[in-house]
From TrEMBL:
GO cellular component: cytosol
The protein's name: Zn-dependent oxidoreductase, NADPH:quinone reductase
Keywords: NADP, Oxidoreductase
Domain annotation Enoyl reductase (ER): ranges: 12-320
GO MF: mRNA 3'-UTR AU-rich region binding; NADPH binding; quinone reductase (NADPH) activity
Source organism per UniProt: Cryptosporangium arvum DSM 44712
Amino acid sequence: MADYGIRFAETGGPEVLRYEEIELPPPGPGEVRVRITAIGLNFRDTYERTGLYPVKLPSGLGSEAAGVVTEIGEGVTGLAPGDRVARATGPLGAYATAENVPAGHLVPIPDGVTDEAAAAVLLKGLTVWYLLRRTYPVRSGETVVFHAAAGAVGLIAGQWLRHLGVRAIGTAGSAEKAKVALENGYREVVLYRSEDVAARVRELTDGAGVPVVYDSVGADTFENSLDCLRPRGLMVSFGNSSGPVTGVNLGVLASKGSLFVTRPTLVHYMGELTTAADELFELVASGAIDPNIAQRVPLADAAEAHRALESRSTTGATVLLP
């Protein structure tokens, strides 16, 4: 049976994505062949498509998927045909009906977690894990700000923060999205189009500010996010949905309270992949985290899924189905 995947030969808008027949060689040493059953859509996929994150062309796309092992390459141990697995790191190519994956990038999917849930939650959940458990380890009773609260990452973060006993202040662009965020663990939501986020955060914290802001929006929110922080607070910039942050004046960090800024990425936390995935899937299986799959789109219509994501017309997670 032929395999198919999304490929692109030039960077640009969603129209550069092509659904094509692909030829997969047998899995090489250390690789595993996976028949893909569900694929996670992530904003970083659009960065690679547009060239913001450079890739060698022509290229496949996507790094988050779940499926079933069908073939094992030389030297692979601990996996066997029939095993349910997921991955959120490794080479691009998850937008496909099958792929060969380095075994070290795969994690087992436990009973109680569906393939769709695993594909929808793994990359986003690992992102939330490193943000909340490693970049700034939040503590029960603290108050934090998390931008894009109704996005797929934001909804997982809200639920995880609630589970940890943390008061989460989210931001959203509409009353409808604010309602979704409040249903997913946020204590308060600031409507950034009609409210001054920093002023509202100061009001909600009795003027103190917060110890940390988690910001995936980038250019549009960076300066205002700094004004949400208490002295010696940490600005965690982990995305660029409105464009990259440039021209940071270090003197501003001093004047606003000896602030810290970091720009973490998942790859530098993946020495703990198994630990992170186990903790995440345990919360999914228990019901503490709902992947919030709101859109299911045929893989062949990946371009339309990208358009919806970039227009911010989606809430929760989108999965592509082969």
